[in-house]
Amino acid sequence: MLPSLLRWSVVVALAACAAPDVGEVPAGTRDPQGGSAQLPPTSSSPAPGASDPVGESPAPCVGGRGPGDYAHKVKVGELEREFLVHVPPGPKRTMPLVLVWHALTLTGTKPAILPTIRELTGFDAHADKRGFVTVYPEGIGKSWNGGECCVEAKAKNIDDVGFAKVILAEVAKDACVDEARVYSTGFSNGGFFSHRLACELGDRFAAIASVSGTLGVPEDTCVPKAPISVLQIHGTEDPLVPFLGGSPKIPLGGIFGTFSSVAATVAHWEAHDACTGSATQTLRQGMVTCTHKECAAGSEVGLCTVEGGGHQWPGSKPLPAMGPQTQDADATALIVDFLLSHTRPTVH
């Protein structure tokens, strides 16, 4: 089968991330004290499988609550945490799961001045078409403990990895999840955190994708048991998380520190995944060039470089003061195609 990155040019042409203390509430209601609540469906897209199916004959599902949005409140340690689950339309069946982690100062789905990560990325439309479950968590202080980044979550050493574990357990109440096809993606601070999840929960995730966020934990502590596929998307003129590494060039929310370079991040995953051969160019579209290496156990490591690009999610509305944006590629489409092409290898 052709490597997943080889199909990206087609995507771009078409377009041109301990059990919780939780209570259940009836569908169609909100629970201010905790638990989960069903919200109105947000899409009228065709049923999954009508076009661009995710896999061959997905297993039937006897659990879950069917299509819709489900808001959750859970306890992780002493903190109440929140996240929203989007289950696509269509018959119940076992589906892949994508966790989408917002950037610092953004939110998952809570209304704010800046767009939510849900609005910015448009993952729901892809989920509805291709049949995967999407989760939008909310960070403490709009931040994640991604290691070197960021602010409140880092300063207070928030257990966001524990939060991710709780999410994985809770989503099973809303949908039947294919445990071999669980993925993480994020923007900026959310990208840092996706890398951390690959390091610490590599036995739970098949692949991760990061936009404008590099590896934020010491390399010698990042040793997952099995190969994990990784995609990095990054602008060469990123003023906040510099492409070549180092400190931010602009102040934002008190971000300090020295960030790993894109090259060092990619090299770490190539070494861990035992990649071989030279990088193969799979896409060249305007400002965007993508390469990949084939690695052990069917994994791969990909890099999409946005020449002259800033701290932006390619293909979305530009964020203010974050450098140049590009519409030459749709990061969400590239990420979905990359993630869904990978299955978690069996660890012996």
Give a verbal description of the structure.
The chain has a single domain (4-44, 58-340), classed as Alpha/Beta hydrolase fold, catalytic domain (Rossmann fold). It has eight helices and eleven strands. It is of the alpha/beta class. It has helices at 8-15, 117-121, 123-130, 151-155, 160-171, 189-200, 262-272, 331-340, and strands at 35-39, 68-76, 79-87, 95-101, 133-137, 177-187, 207-211, 229-235, 280-285, 288-294, 300-306. The longest helix is centred in the middle third of the chain and has 12 residues, at 160-171. 20% of the residues lie in helices and 22% in strands. An eleven-stranded mixed beta sheet has the order 1-2-3-5-4-6-7-8-11-10-9, sandwiched between helices.
Kindly report the name of the CATH homologous superfamily. Answer: Alpha/Beta hydrolase fold, catalytic domain
Count the domains: 1
* Low-pLDDT sequence parts: 1-36, 38-55
Write down the overall geometry.
globular
Number of strands: 11
Q: How much helicity do the residues have? A: 10-25%
Indicate the CATH class: Alpha Beta
What order do the SSEs take from the amino end to the carboxyl end, as H and E?
A: HEEEEHHEHHEHEEHEEEH
- Which structural class do the helices and strands define? alpha/beta
Task: Provide key terms for this protein.
single chain; 348 residues; alpha/beta; Rossmann fold; 11-stranded mixed β-sheet; 8 helices
Which SSEs are present, and which pair or pack?
Blueprint: H1 8-15, E1 35-39, E2 68-76, E3 79-87, E4 95-101, H2 117-121, H3 123-130, E5 133-137, H4 151-155, H5 160-171, E6 177-187, H6 189-200, E7 207-211, E8 229-235, H7 262-272, E9 280-285, E10 288-294, E11 300-306, H8 331-340
